[in-house]
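Input chain follows. Return structure tokens only.
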Amino acid sequence: MIDAYAAGDVRGALSLHREMQPIYTGMTRTQGVITTKAALSLLGRPGGPVRPPLLDATPAEIEQLRTDLVAGGVKLR
């Protein structure tokens, strides 16, 4: 998206931005660290649990995040 914009392809950059909108939505449904660590886990990357007083994402939140990421084109394991 950034490369397209920098190359003057504003329409292409906007198209990519719109395609990734589900990712933005999914990553901001709850507190950032919670969804970031859940997303890392879905990608098979180490992230570990969140530190108190935060709580890890619930199974329902993880499934919603999975749906959002896939809708945005992220390839999950």
